[in-house]
Amino acid sequence: VQLQASGGGLVQAGGSLRLSCAASGRTFSSYAMGWFRQAPGKEREFVTTIRRSSGSTYTADSVKGRFTISRDNAKKTVTLQMNSLKPEDTAVYYCAGSSRNFNSDKAYMYEIWGQGTLVTVSS
């Protein structure tokens, strides 16, 4: 499986963006999917994750109530809806896939990574 993230851009604080991650390959539904982000000069940070069948999600406290992850296994996509964006949400956002079907916030649990898409939130 290969992943391609898109949808990043420049948005004002309080605005919304929708990131998408498209997967190639036939085994997308076998992967739990997650979003991570990395701000300039900082370590990669967990954002949210969803299990294979969309039945369970886990979201970081820093974005809970503002960000929502969803997936469409038929279309082989995972989406991150980001609302009420803040300047501190500025980062490169990465989608990732894990063959382990549980919600992990650890980057090393994810074997497959997309190339990242930049989100910039202006104040």
Descriptive notes:
This protein is mainly beta and 123 residues long. Helices cover 0% and strands 50% of the residues. The chain is built from no helices and eleven strands. The strands form two sheets. Strands 2, 4, 5, 6, 9, 10 and 11 form a seven-stranded mixed sheet that branches. The model has no long low-confidence stretch (mean pLDDT 95).
Compact description:
The protein has strands at 2-6, 9-12, 17-24, 32-38, 45-50, 57-59, 67-72, 77-82, 91-98, 112-113, 117-122. It is mostly beta strands and 123 residues long.
Keywords for this entry:
123 residues; mainly beta; 7-stranded mixed beta sheet; 11 strands; 4-stranded antiparallel beta sheet
Instruction: Characterize the biggest β-sheet.
Output: 7 strands, mixed
User: What is the helical fraction, as a range of percent?
Assistant: under 10%
Query: What is the helix/strand order?
Result: EEEEEEEEEEE
Strand content: over 45%
The span between the termini is 37 Å
Low-confidence stretches: none
Overall pLDDT level:
95
Strand element count? 11
Number of helices: 0
What Rg, in angstroms, do the CA atoms define? 13 Å
Structural class designation: mainly beta
Q: Name the overall outline.
A: globular
Write the layout of secondary structure elements.
Layout: E1 2-6, E2 9-12, E3 17-24, E4 32-38, E5 45-50, E6 57-59, E7 67-72, E8 77-82, E9 91-98, E10 112-113, E11 117-122
Parallel strand pairs: 2-11
Antiparallel strand pairs: 1-3, 3-8, 4-5, 4-9, 5-6, 7-8, 9-10, 9-11
